[in-house]
Amino acid sequence: MEVGPGLPVRIIGERINPTGKKRLTESLEEGSLEVVKEEAVRQAEAGADFLDVNVGVPGIDEPEMMVKAVEVVTSVTDLPLVIDSSRPDVLKAGLDAYQGKALVNSVDGEEEKSRELLDIIKGAGAAVIGLALDENGIPETPQGRLEIAQRIVVWAEEAGIPREDVFIDCLSLSVSAGHTAGLITLESIKLVGQELGVNQVLGVSNISFGLPDRGFVNHIFLAMAVQNGLNCPIMDPLDMEMKMAMRTAEMMMGRDEWCGRYLETYREKMTAGS
Amino acid sequence: MADALQSVKDALGAFDKEKTLEAVNAALEGGASARQVFDALIEGMTAIGKDFEKMICFLPEVMKATDAMKAAFEVLMPIMVEADDLPEKVGTVVFGTVKGDIHNVGKDMVISVMNTQGFDVIDLGVDVPASKFYEAAELHKPDIVAICAIMSSTIPIQKDIVDYFLAQGNKEDYKFLVGGGSTNPAWAEKIGADGWGKDAVEATDVALKLVGKG
Asked: Rounded to a whole number, what is the distance in angstroms from the first to the last CA of chain B?
């Protein structure tokens, strides 16, 4: 699978992450990987291009659980994995257990910590997600987020990771708490695309927190983000409306010849609905 | 005068800062005391809090109303101080999101609703280390230390903060309120917190109980 700006939008399936998910949290607490396995299968069938794997639950042996999760997920799908944790030891355990080329979620603009991780990532031949934030928080301007992204790309290249293996996450805050939150993210995505030409990931659902009819807000924001250069949304591949929004945006940007992917997704939606 | 106070509530209920300030000044000119206007604002804000709970109004509107209310307080405070007619303070809260977690919206929501109930909230912001919670508590001597964490990776830090106070021997000086993400009452109990709220309204209700006003 090729990934790049201008190529089809790729979906990073977000469902293997216990934050806010009771059933997955409980199963991990019990040491069971049944829900992880089930979610891997469902997302693969729904057309995910990558699977994010996060097993961060308080009170468990997270490195060990990450290893088991990687084993279980790779036993049911060949999709590339996104090894996701806030802990470097968990990321390292996941990378060691994984045979394929992983994407690591994530490093950020804190230099010492990120450079250390980048060396590990390089050693594993993996790619990396870089978050546009640092010890001072998330910059309030597109320029500020670009500067962090630039730093991360430089550190990655110095560690021997090529630019095409660096995915930048410009981050979205909630528009209900600051009415320019959406605009800042969209402009950041555009700027990062123009200046760095890198792949970009984004979890879009944070944008709608605190608002009614969140799904609607998420769909429109996803479409706008794709228009501005987002090419790897972190999303629920089972959410057909989200996928339709994403495909429509690609189509409108002239990147879906004969409307092929739009129609394919439309048929999926019809099948799923019947 | 009842009309004038109703206009204050209406203007606040329309989330309109300009109109709220106009109505506040009109009520004062019409002979209402600053304290009466203040109470009308709190009543109006309580109604907004209830509408928020019922999803009749939404976060940006609550925040807009809070902004209007704060502007009105700036007009009223000096007059109430002058007249020595200050409202009873319900309680003081030191509030923050834990180190490593930069989620602010949930916390801000709770603070907005707490403000409507007369709490004085000191907002420490996000990514707050345990030592900063502790220093702020020692400085402001709040009734409640409120700790927000959203991510499964940062929720355990709530315990670290409570333990920090425990280690300093000051845990019993404060009530601890936790919430956010997949936290739950069992977790709150396990880490030795005094209260937990599933959302802004419940957290505020619990806070009121913790200060003996619920």
From this structure: 30
Mutate to test the interface with B, among A66, A86, A136, A207 (most CBs of B within 10 A): A86
Show the tokens assigned to A209. Answer: 């927190």
ipTM of the complex: 0.75
> Would an 8 Å CB–CB cutoff place B105 in contact with chain A?
yes
Q: Note if the pTM is more than 0.80.
A: yes
List the pLDDT tens digit at each of the 274 positions of chain A: 899 998 999 999 999 999 888 899 999 999 999 999 999 999 999 999 999 999 988 788 999 999 999 999 999 999 999 999 989 999 999 999 999 999 999 999 999 999 999 999 999 999 999 999 998 889 999 999 999 999 999 999 999 999 999 999 999 999 998 899 999 999 999 999 999 999 999 999 889 988 999 999 999 999 999 999 999 999 999 999 999 999 999 999 999 999 999 999 999 999 887 5
Q: Decide if B59 and A20 are in contact by the 8 Å CB cutoff.
A: no
Up-side HSE of residue B47: CA atoms within 13 Å toward CB? 14
Q: Contact A190/A212 with Cβ under 8 angstroms?
A: no
Helix axes B34-53, B200-210, angle to 10 degrees: 130
Beta bridge mates, A200: A168
> Is residue B193 a contact partner of residue B179, using CB atoms and an 8 Å limit?
no
- E strands in A17-133: 50-53, 81-84, 103-107, 127-131
Check: CB of residue A97 under 8 Å from CB of residue A71. yes
| Structural tokens at position A141 | 């301007």
The residue type of B137 is A
Please, what's the b/e burial string for A193-213 (b: 16 or more CB within 10 A of its CB; e: otherwise)?
beebebbbbbbbbbbbbbbee
State the Cα–Cα distance between residues A212 and A255, nearest whole angstrom.
Answer: 32
Q: How confident is the model at residue B108 (pLDDT cuts 50, 70, 90)?
A: confident
CA nearest to A200, candidates A5, A49, A20, A38: A5
- Please enumerate residues of A whose Cβ is less than 8 A from a Cβ of B: 18-22, 25, 56-59, 85-87, 133, 137-138, 173-174, 176-177, 179, 209-212
Q: State which CATH number among 3.40.50.720, 3.20.20.20, 3.40.50.1390, 3.40.50.2000 fits the domain covering A12-273.
A: 3.20.20.20
Cβ distance of B154 and A86 shorter than 8 Å: yes
Domain chopping of chain A, boundaries: 12-273
Q: In this complex, is the C-beta atom of B150 within 8 Å of any C-beta atom belonging to chain A?
A: yes
CB contact under 8 A, A137 and B150: no
